[in-house]
Amino acid sequence: MLSAADNELLTRTGPGTPMGELLRRFWVPALLTEEVAEPQCAPVRLTIMGESLVVWRDADGRLGALEEHCAHRQASLYFGRNESRESRDGNCGLRCVYHGWKYDIEGRCIDMPNEPAQSRFKEHIRIKSYPVAERGDVVWLYLGPGGSIPPLPDLEWAVVPQSRRFVSKRLQYSNFVQAIDGGIDSSHVSFLHSDARLWNPDWTGAKNSTRDRLADDGAPKFFVEPTEYGMLIGARRNTGDGRHYWRITQWLMPWYNIVPRDGDGPISAHAWVPIDDENCWAWSISYNPDKPLTKEQTDHYRSGGSIHAEATPGTYVPTRNAGNDYLIDRTLQRTVSFSGIHGIAMQDVAMQESMGRIVDRAKEHLGSSDAAVIAARRRLLAEARALAEAGQDATVSGLDPLQQRVRSASMILPAEVSWVDATAESRKASEQHYQYSS
Ligand code: FES
Ligand SMILES: [Fe+2]
Nearest C-alpha to atom 4 of ligand 1 is from which residue? Predict the structure, then answer.
């Protein structure tokens, strides 16, 4: 459980809040590149940590991220005209359609057609612009103080060749910490995502898949190892023959995780980014560091398979949602699916949204399997407090790209072996993917 005051500190991310200030020290995965793929495309409107923004690609192909509202009388630049050099002032820019003020990607007002031609008023007008970058099919924004812009994160999924990665995002109607909590809680995998048949004492089918191992021991012991970038979470299950099945999830500051894969298949990763305090973007990434994804795999992801969600066409809003109870199927629940809800992503969402927009953590009863959840919350709270106390000069952990070159792992190990040592090599991201990245 968490006190009401700590829960406030943990979940509030608007400008000026301690957690908001901490999160703003990190690059934010903000849009899929596909949303602003073409020069002179339509601007995209988005909210990140309570700040309304508009992101657009000008006719020269450069990305701009501006505060959403025009300096004149606050109309939304989302409705703006994305103009090329062929326009009346001869520059690329985003022109407000209310009275025609026009801005470049740095937020400078470059044309003010409703003022006299000799007026110099426009030279004094500038709206907020944010650093923006592209990597790994994602448009990243930096919303923090100008003096401390870190390098882009070196997450392995973001640097592998495009053919080895599939990235999706979906809207989630809850605070971002509920999603983080779910992402590092390996314990629920034995239940929420499991096959109902494994829970039938008469089940005689084969039992050697990852799923079976997870269901075989629903009470894993959790071990947490703090690191510079976040923490290693070791979930230890008994295999029944005296050995241990280890699943090691990586949690990276401030909102990333990486989940173990099966064999040499794709690795799953996530990011959970606050839209405001009651909504977040859930990013899901399937990537294989060793080989391209197959067409079957990407087709599967696109149709809402694995950790991805089926969305209403033209949106990032899941078709299964609270309004239709995630299309829970009670027959399925009795027979083959523990939850009765289709798809891993929506199983997670149903649980996380069902807690309410911001869960009251004072009502929780945390047990030993919640060790990672407790540790991540503590880390975020401690870092936010330290930053608030030390002010602008504080160093924030988790920003060193070299430290971020990690991946998850799973392994069956003899009982006497150290899980940290035994998995050290398999937790390293492949160096080959970083040769050309900056
Ligand atoms: S509100 Fe944008 S030009 Fe008037
Ligand atoms: Fe899950």
Answer: 99
Residue ranges of domains in the chain: 28-141, 156-434
Judged on CB neighbours under 10 Å (0-12, 13-18, 19+), 358 is middle
Give the distance (Å) from ligand 2 centre to CA of residue 192: 7
Amino acid at the residue 211: R
Give 54-93 pLDDT, tens digit per residue.
Answer: 999 999 999 999 999 999 999 999 999 999 999 999 999 9
Mean predicted lDDT score pLDDT of the chain? 94
Is residue 218 predicted with pLDDT exceeding 80? no
Measured from the Cα of 74, ligand 1's closest atom is 1
Q: Could you tell me the end-to-end alpha-carbon distance of the chain, in angstroms, rounded to an integer?
A: 41
User: Does the domain at residues 156-434 carry the CATH identifier 3.90.380.10?
Assistant: yes
Atom 3 of ligand 1, nearest CA residue? 99
**d(C-alpha 254, C-alpha 26), whole Å:** 8
Using a 6 Å CB cutoff, which residues line ligand 1? 70, 72-73, 75, 96, 98-101
The answer to whether the beta carbons of residues 248 and 409 sit under 8 Å apart is: yes
pLDDT band at 135 (very low <50, low <70, confident <90, very high): very high
Determine the distance separating the centroid of ligand 2 and the alpha carbon of 181, expressed in angstroms: 10
- pTM for the full model? 0.95
The reply to whether CATH 2.102.10.10 applies to domain 28-141 is yes
The percent of residues in the chain predicted with pLDDT above 70, rounded, is 96
Nearest CA to ligand 1 atom 1: 73
How many whole angstroms from 352 Cα to the centroid of ligand 2? 10
* Ligand 1 site-directed mutation target among 69, 77, 78, 98, most atoms within 8 Å of CB: 98
For residue range 354-400, list pLDDT tens digits in order.
Answer: 999 999 999 999 999 999 999 999 999 999 999 999 987 778 999 99
Q: Which of 356, 363, 172 is nearest to 276 (CA)?
A: 172
